[in-house]
Amino acid sequence: MAPQVTVDSINPKVIECQYAVRGEIVILAQKLQQEIQAKPEAYPFQEILYCNIGNPQSLGQKSITFFREVLALCDHPAILAKSETQALFSADSIERARKILDQIPGRATGAYSHSQGIKGLRDTIAAAIEARDGFPADPNDIFMTDGASPAVHMMMQLLIRSEKDGILCPIPQYPLYSASIALHGGTLVPYYLDEATGWGLEVSELKKQLQEAKSNGITVRALVVINPGNPTGQVLAEENQKAIVEFCKEEGLVLLADEVYQENVYVPEKKFHSFKKVARSMGYSEKDIHLVSFQSVSKGYYGECGKRGGYMEVTGFGADVREHIYKLASVNLCSNITGQILASLVMSPPKVGDKSYESYIAERDGILSSLARRAKTLEDAFNKLEGITCNKAEGAMYLFPRINLPKKAIKAAEEVKTAPDLFYCRRLLNETGIVFVPGSGFGQVPGTWHFRCTILPQEEKIPAIVTRLTDFHKRFMDEFRE
Amino acid sequence: MAPQVTVDSINPKVIECQYAVRGEIVILAQKLQQEIQAKPEAYPFQEILYCNIGNPQSLGQKSITFFREVLALCDHPAILAKSETQALFSADSIERARKILDQIPGRATGAYSHSQGIKGLRDTIAAAIEARDGFPADPNDIFMTDGASPAVHMMMQLLIRSEKDGILCPIPQYPLYSASIALHGGTLVPYYLDEATGWGLEVSELKKQLQEAKSNGITVRALVVINPGNPTGQVLAEENQKAIVEFCKEEGLVLLADEVYQENVYVPEKKFHSFKKVARSMGYSEKDIHLVSFQSVSKGYYGECGKRGGYMEVTGFGADVREHIYKLASVNLCSNITGQILASLVMSPPKVGDKSYESYIAERDGILSSLARRAKTLEDAFNKLEGITCNKAEGAMYLFPRINLPKKAIKAAEEVKTAPDLFYCRRLLNETGIVFVPGSGFGQVPGTWHFRCTILPQEEKIPAIVTRLTDFHKRFMDEFRE
Lengths: 482, 482
What we know:
The structure is a homodimer.
Chain A: H1 12-16, H2 24-38, E1 49-50, H3 65-75, H4 83-88, H5 91-103, H6 119-133, E2 142-145, H7 149-159, E3 165-171, H8 175-183, E4 187-192, H9 203-215, E5 219-226, H10 238-251, E6 254-258, H11 275-281, E7 291-296, E8 310-315, H12 319-331, H13 337-347, H14 357-384, E9 388-389, E10 398-399, E11 402-403, H15 407-415, H16 420-432, E12 434-435, E13 437-438, E14 451-454, H17 462-480
Parallel strand pairs in A: 1-12, 3-4, 3-5, 5-6, 6-7
Antiparallel strand pairs in A: 2-8, 7-8, 9-11, 10-14, 13-14
Helix pairs in contact in A: 2-16, 3-5, 3-13, 6-13, 7-8, 15-16, 16-17
């Protein structure tokens, strides 16, 4: 018999799932890159400028030295006692590596750990959360994961029973959420962020969408909030967060707080507050609200995407539900130990007085201030373009400008059966090598068009991006202006 | 409103999923360990002897020096050019680290990679598969994953549409398979390994179970084979593998080959053959059979469980199906880079002439020969116990002895509403500190009882395990003998 697996016979949930961040435009970009390598004169540009994904080190961002020192020493502890090591590594990285190794049962960095992660590292993380929020954190609430994505999948797997279960998600959203909900067979209940108020999150909109979902027979189980926002870059005001907590409490919803950009705030008037801190400051305890916070080593100033470290802090569930979350974690045994160690480091970096403190702060602030400058430059550049408006880049790693496409461009896109924003992004890529992700990959108010642009290209490349984009945009508008 | 998530309202597939390797007995063991730490005289033993899980480094197995040198250098490439590094690291580890870094775009070990894994590392793995099998391997067929578990989940997610889709699984089986099938809502179609013939895999049994499943309205989509076997430790004969390939071809089934123990063969008369090699040697190409092979850095002589490296080699699917597998991989962005590097290293270790070759071989063979001795000692010890028969430990890391429990013991177990094998294992743990996993966690012919015991405790501890087990078993049988 011929092999039986065809596209018509695979899981339709897999087919339905979409993930634009690595989708069509990116595949085209990789193809162009190969063509340029083979034939440098093939296109009017010599390199692909990836602005599609929050992957800082792929664009030249350096890793934080102290973190990498500790990882190397934990990978090869045999060198800890050698005199040459003192010349190669900072004294506090040696000390920290010893401390971490002491926290690992048998000092075995090659062993599966507890399925929630190494207890000593979870202690460190819980202490850091306490210090950040001013409220207690319990290491037994921490589940360490290979980046934040598996943690999100785990919660979706726990909560979604059928297509009658809904998850309230922001639109625009990071497509991990729509992908995970599709894979687990649930229903994405959209709520629209308000572009006019800087992508504000209105509780009235949440209520309206919840009611509508209910009237369609959907049981809404959870609310996803991404703060700072992806792809929108907004940072929620504390008052707004309080209203969201109140809404979740009133409606009995799990609050799934994507807080992976907690270190990425670029404007002095905004500050990151964890939802747990906000809920506890309102007097709400574990008994009042189910709250899950996701964190990752991939973002922040560290940007260690390839290490796949992260955790979720799970509060408010009963011991019996918790056991099932633990079981889900245990089926995959544990997350990678290097990522676990790194997660403890980003939550507990060098402190005043540590040998590496000054160099660490210089590296950290160098990255964050450069990101802030790049965000501002790009934001200003977008706002100078005809028909483009771009909200303030308050945080995260993205801008999500809106583009008023001429009717003629929309028609041209329709003729080639392409969404207008994809049409724009594809033209931009083919003519300039710049890679944006079309807004349709994140969701947008119907009839509006956007794209996501990261602020991550190296600072010295930003002027060229602005010039190329500006020139392209002018040509594009000239071509399609009515 | 009170929080709404209770055990009655979570996904029933999560509740149904079981994972005995980290289940009740292990939770009890962790509790006892804490009690002993607090009060050393609490039990008649001073330490817990974990024989429950294939986690070699947690029991003192050392990592392979060359592998860890390369990982450390890739984690902190800044030291590569320093003179002290030459004193601390072997020359070929420095050379290999440089080569790997050159294969990573931008030398960025902190960046997300291609969702299938770094291309250069996949080239290395494909070349190693070719050298192992004598048949071509394509780097584009390799999907690197965080250990083998996510790869197994990915294939189950792809293949299972509903409870009407079945996966043929060996009984006994590694409970990842039953857990993953349960989580994805499919049906496990069991086929029984024949204990009487050393856990042989009879194609007649496959045919019988396939027919029975079909008559129950189940569409069987794939066959799982674990070779070398977990928990049974058997190594399939090549003729047997040919018959299995023929069966999958005839029935149009995907062959999911769990080959993570490919380096763990302990008897001279048996040899590991990959299913791909067997299929190709029969003249079957990609067009004839869908074949997926799983490999992991967690097993073999390397035992790097905590690093979560692995890959699957996917052959025989159309380009359109492949795109959906790629999409699933891309939703999680990529597997961890440290694990990716390690997967390339275990498939391409030092070669004759390399500086580390001799010490590498000494480390490798030291571990493998010790594992073979431990397996034999435990096998012999089990076979000396009243009512216990244990098949030959040919490969993998486990023994799966059968125990003929006295009726009185079965009755005593029933009285406390416990499966008889769990009853035995719990008593064993409470009286000796030895942790076995009850056979019911893996599946067994109804009415037979087994337990799984790893061969991994340090060699010097094996005599004490044998003595404690023998004494306990005698007491247990004396207590319950009719």
